[in-house]
């Protein structure tokens, strides 16, 4: 049974606070193991990759090659289901169109009243690594969501690493890499793949940033190489929060709660409503739909352990609760969906109206499905083009501008006890 | 003696590679200590802050209060040197003007050919903590550089923490906080201050993101609370790279190299030039200026241990070296400064032309002086307004749009083995 809370009950504040602090992911302490793997890759390069890949994936990369060849990728593409491939192409085009709008002007410069030229230029990161999990969690849609924005940003070199347990690689994953314009694909995974991307080996040249989801080993490796290279956020289990009034369709809402719950037993699905009838109907619909769901075992565990239904007097009362939960995905199925959208501060993505199930955004809308989890939407954003670019600020003074601004810089340099700062200005003004 | 390299010499590639990998900062392993401090603050709140502050700063916050009062801040402002205060106000106004241009539109939405509404809204982070070091490294300019962009972003609550060893607080630091619009100031520092910001205590409500520089304890604490809250980059020792041709003024260049070197014995100053005469003249000018520099001990150690002069045949040959070094600050004093600026991919900030010493940007130009160090300009940017905001993506379909996009979403859900994803779309289309 999912948790049921009523914001009118006397102990709600306490119960909501403890609900907020529930840890959904068992944190595995793999740091020591991962440190050893990274050190081995730094010191022995390809040889270490070969050993770890033989051990963990049971393949000999010295024999079949670390790099996945263009011929192999073409063959994989041919083996794909035609409908799925067409859907992937549609997704790719829409993701590209959406993300093109995020691209900043290459250079912005302005001249202020004193004649000082100020501004910034944006450049793409020169080389990016994309981690793709193997096995059942190898999602072609995630390849597109990570790779297309990097290419829209203009990254000249995009390198994908993906483990191939027992030599198996998902054809749609390789097809997605080709569609997205990935430049190099290597069959290596785990902490060893992250280490290779960060430090380089004989075969894999190092990159400047690593993105993409992975298991506890991959996450630990990303944390450890951070600083040497950039990393994206560390993704936690996925979440949806549905805000619905009495106009909500219980079957549709139940389907959306279960679409989240089927990801992972640690996933979380929450309904907040002002309608006790809807709450009851949704709960029944969930039970009923679970009976015919292929991944019912996963979804029912997630719904039982982390699901919740919260009753509020009016939906507007839910806004502060939503902001505290800061859900990765927020669906709003209510007559005043737009007004509620405008009031929300913290959410990774908002799906407005009953005809916008999250799954549309997961796959084909064009917006990114890599979104902040575990309440991190309070301070971070979903993956976007700027994650693959960086900003260099520009400043240009002539003698007059330096004369105008110099004395204030000298005063501050002296106030901070930094005499050489002051002198570097004074010496140009003959002061 | 600084390192001298010539890009024409046979061993240059190797020597440049080892120069790139020089570690300038002794990494102190303080993680265990810091973990203990954080746990104490989580479990005992204000009481733990009182104990650590008595121990490290030798003051009793139970007596004088953890929060720095408005009266205390006003008194500090009155005690400031008038010229320094006026310079600080000029800096504040220019920083605000520059950063206002970085503010994105609150909402961007567009409707595509299918009628799907897509877009995003930007919101400010609800509460931000700003760490300010105490003692000699308490720079009022850094308070402005961190606080003003947060207020431009629209953060409603900006909390500053600053240690006051033996009860001392720099008046200009408090004045800068007031000028920048900081909402709350607490006299607490170290890992305990970071823990209080992340987890909250009876007196200090928690924030969603923590920014600002600090010592090894503060940096370790920021790494450990990352995830619970957002953090900015971990700042390393500061660097400047000066690119100059024979038109460069050796005295000015020497002054700028020393302005960097005086920060810290781990700071780094590099000159790359195509003029062997300039190289020699700059080296002499550095020696000469060191004789009268107040912080000569620090600057000479930095120049001796980490300084470098690199000769190239033409300045254009320096571009790939600059991109590999990815300096925090790049000054270009050369006739073709603009053409070189256009070619550089990796730098935190570029100071164009001989009349733009870095110190102008450090204090009063308006651009931000919090910039990526230790080669991280390869993948990250200087502090800016977007660091204090986050993006929520928006998606809105009606029945027709869902009918148009639904089948592709269903195909991908099924291809990925996520049946509930497919069903959440199909159920709305009666499929």
UniProtKB/TrEMBL annotation, chains A, B:
Q: Which Pfam families match?
A: Histidinol_dh
Q: Any idea which residues are catalytic in this one?
A: 328-329
Enumerate the residues binding substrate.
238, 260, 263, 329, 362, 416, 421
State how the cofactor is bound: Binds 1 zinc ion per subunit.
Q: Name one GO cellular component term.
A: cytosol
Coiled coil regions, renumbered to chain: none
Record-given protein name:
Histidinol dehydrogenase
Task: Name its species.
Answer: Pseudolabrys taiwanensis
- The UniProt gene name for this protein comes to hisD
